[in-house]
Amino acid sequence: MSDWLIYRGAGEPHDGIDQLPTPPPWRGFDGGPVLPPPMDLDTASVRRLGQGRSAASYEPLGEDLELINAALYLRRPLLVTGAPGTGKSTIPHSVAHELRLGHVLTWPVVSRSTLGEGLYSYDAIGRLQDAQLGHSTDDIGRYIRLGPLGTALLPWSRPRVLLIDEIDKSDIDLPNDLLNVLEEGEFTIPELERVADRSPEAFVFTHEGERVPVTRGRVRCRAFPFVVLTSNGERDFPAPLLRRCLHLFLPQPDHERLAAVVRAHLGEEAAAGGEELIQRFLMRSLQGPLAVDQLLNALYLSVYSGDAETRGRLAELLMRPLDQRG
Amino acid sequence: MTEPSLAELIALLRQGGLRTDDAQSLADAVWLARQMGPSTRTASPEGRPAGDTGLRPAAPAGRRSAEPADPEGLPPGLRLPLPAVDPPRHVPPTAVPAPSSLPGLLTLQRALRQLQRHRGGAPSRFVLDERATAERSARTGLTVPVLTPVTRRTMSLHLLVDSSSSMVVWEQVAEQMLQVLGRIGVFRDVRLHRLHESPDGRPVLASGRSGDRPRPAEDIVDPTGRQFTLVITDGAGPLWRSGAAQRLLHRLAAQSAPVAVLQPLPQRLWPRTALAPRPGELRRLGPEGGRCDFVPEGSSGAAREDGLPVPVLPLSPQALERWARWVSGAGPREVRGAAALVLPDHQAAEHGPERFPTAQDRVTRFRSDASPTAQRLAAYLAAAPLALPVMLGVQHMMFRSATGPSPLAEVLLGGLLSHANPAGTEGETWYDFAPGVRELLLERLAKDEAVLVLKFCSAYVERHFEGDPPNFTAMAAAQLSGTDAPPLADFRPSAPGPTAGVPAPFAAVAAEVVRRFTTDRRRAVPVPDEQLAAARELLARYAREQDGRALWTAIQKLRVIVTGPPGPLVSEANLELAEALLALHRWNPDPALLDEADEAVDRTLGPPAPAGSTVGRARLVRGRLRMTQARDRREAGDLRRAEDLLDSASVELDGATRLADEDTLLGAVLERARALEQLAEIRDSALLLREAAGSLRTLARVQPLWARRSADVPLQLGRVLLTIARTTTDGKEAREFAVEAVEELAAARELLGAEPDGPSRTAGLLLDLAEAQERAGEDEEAVLLTLGEAEHALEFAAGPRACLALRIARMYRALSARRPAAYSFACDVLARAASHAPAEDPALAPLLAERGEMLLDSADTEEHVTAAVDVLRGAVRATPEDRPEWAPRLILLGRALHARFRRARDRTDLLEADRHLSRAVSAAYDRGVAARGWYERGRVQIELGRLGEYTGRRADHLHQAAGHLRRAAREAREAGDELFAAEARHAYDELSRRLRS
Fold this sequence. Notes:
By secondary structure, chain A is α/β, with parallel strands linked by helices.
């Protein structure tokens, strides 16, 4: 049964994305003109995945792997829930790295985030200033910059990877607004629609700084992006959103997972020498929630800390449960 | 063709417990399953463009059948989301008390709309106002942007719902508040958290009712002051008693944002909770709510009390409106209300000195405080098992007008109940009354009300427990209501075997209710003599009329009597009890009854050794007991244990015969003979049978000296002799035994006519008589006559008739060789029996098979053959596949279809026949059966060959046929059936000759 998996979680980049079958008829979109995909990852992914990227720090297991692949096949967003530090935000980076889907578009959500901000922003003041200064302002596309969500919904030939981080921190309205856009796979830019009869095609900036054409103010995707929504589980989402997403729940990492993470980020010797710290981390995590970052911090510092006593003290300081105060 | 399979898929998914109400999710899952299908992915050929992989050209119909049917194999897409807010675990949606008693959503909304006036501090952001800018620049000619402050909602609200067990009844309140607060449009964000207690006593938050993924409760404290917190609790949970929740409240109140507690209990119960709010005056310390001051009523204004005040609101729209107005700064600064003072180090509530109140104390206290509705509810609940759904249901049913959750909350908190954990109820919420409380409450319950409650509980049992468990609650209800108690047969579980796991309290509570209403003289000193006589009379009534109620009442009485001091009366009572329990066991095969009977017999034989005759009776009862246990073990397949039990039964019964008086001697000897018969069957020993026959003969000789002659003796003797005649190998001896059997059975027949239950047993007797006559070599007329009488007697026979009818038919058929008329008799009997037999009758399948075979053999028109086909189909369907008879019946069906083909020339019949026959040969246990199967297959293939359109196909079939026939010959030879082997060989030779030519 495993030959339907496209993303295998092995860490080695490959071209499996070409074998993704055409989407089910109700999830097919026909935006155009088709844009070639960007191919490069950047340091953001390196920070997440670790140096020797072949031993990627995130190795999903059985059911998780199936869910991620199901999300790829069905063109549906993936809602990842888990405690802080369990590797939720690493999933899109891992997928982008392995399937060569390019730079991961990240949208960190805060309580003030609105859908509009994620789609695009229009620099009205800048345009006004240019008009006052006498520069030409015919090219309205210069003042429009697509946000991460907007960029993901451009008609790329390969699906982009979009990470909507910490969506449970958002306003009460954002999940509902998001729902509609993710269903339809398209959105409009009113500022361009207004002038559509005069200039039907405009070149707007993507989130990464490239200029792409937008016809008649309407952006529609071609390959639905691989959207990952992460949540800390602090709040319940409205049922319509939940119905549209696939759910993945990440438990706290166990010993092998932690060792793999350490190995990926800090190398083999750190993993070997850090056994004791890993054990202590696991025991501490029984008392309260701990993040994997804290372990990595402690291990990193232990290289520089000299004697065992200092190491022990540092470990105490750094590996406190997250819910303790003071 | 796709429609039915899609419907089947949905049904399968539903069975697996997956939600399928979202068509799109289902479509996703089916599509994904196709992609994941078993065929491997072929390497993409060169020349394909990157994005187009092309779907594998799978035939949709065929692929559907490849879908895995078990839930584990389903694609991950089907593990699609569960509802966002998981429903409360134990509250069945239909049983929640009518919500019209709680303030409606609209009223709440109107009340809380006052909160809209709340301005949450200065605006922090400004945004470009395009219209104003455009206007101004058009008017002034200068383009200067106009910025307006963002008047977004800035406040968020966190709803903390206490999830202790008593809060289950207020689930609706939490839902309503969540909806209303979301709708009034005041808050940017409304979140619901559930407050649980962690194992070490700290408050934790979780999102669902089940408390998974807990977070520490301190997470909710928001120092920015932009958060309202509303706590919904009844103040009675463990977190309040230990003070942990009050400490949490203190931290929340120390921020500058408003905090309040919503207390759904009626106000007069507030002082009883651990969160004891006091009435007084609340004064705002700012333009809007948040920090406030509290002056309790009755205290002098000077002395400040320690602790921060937290307003406590009742569930009334007026109070909520006043609070909303006060907190949003719209009304006056002071408002009259209730508040609780919480300290940063709030201690656990003090207990009074450790008192163990008696049941009377508890009930008195409850009755003095509780509302009349709660008191009535408590009385009703005394008649029901205290599982939460049952309690809610009883409340809903007994109170016609909506009463809301408060009466139940009062009962839960009234000091009468505590948590309980009866066996088999893990994961459910059960309570129990404190000892003695139930009886006191039952005193105030009227009989007809008790009957209603019991009826509800019995309906609950039927709805929620599968199979057909013994429903004592129904029995109790019937008994109390004095309706013509249906005979015990109605309470009999329809299928033997382990009863469904109905938790014990259902039956125990029903028993207690019955006890309260039937043993009125409970308090009087029991006089065993009268009681025993009364019990005996009831038992006699049961024996006469099969009145189940009498039996049960008798058992109750006897149970009470045997708890008395040991004595001759008590010994007798124990004995009667054991016998009654044995009788009850026939209807309700609960092994606990047998154990109780065993103990009762022990007590009879125990320390004060009773009179000899009593010992005899006791041993007889024990012998019967062992036989019943042996039967249980045999049905369970444990033959060794059954054998041991039968041995021990035989020993006991032997002892009984030596010590018994006249009445019991008969019973003992008969039982012993039965035990020996069964042992003989298990051990396959003829010796035991002769021993049984011997003892019965002795009894028969002795019997005429007594007053009463019972038919049982000659009947059983005759049967034993017949069994010997059947099993013995010596022909002459068999005939002798059969002759003797005929005599005895004829005698038994005369006697049976005079007995009350004679007619129901006559059919079986006559059948045996007919068989004995045949084995004795009497002429066919006599046998036919007896069989005819047996047929008539079949009308009156008790128990499953199909078996008897089948035997009759078989005997007729055996005789039909010499008397052709018997054949049609056999057909008639079978036809009648087949139409009357119920579907669960295990003898139905052989009956149908026999009938089908007879129809087939005698069929001369197409209708007859079709009838045969239908009957045989029924027979196959009724036979489980793992029985050895399944294969021969399939072969019969194949033959019947073949026969129909010969008349009707419908090719599908042949194809179907081939299918059945191939299944039959692969399933056949017996070589001989397999041989016939192969033979029939060969013949069918020959027919197919004749039908074949092209020569190639024709030859195919004929070659196959040849193979089958050869196989048939081989199997027959190995089975030792030379005759049939020769026939098959002959057919094969003919065929191969034809093929070669």
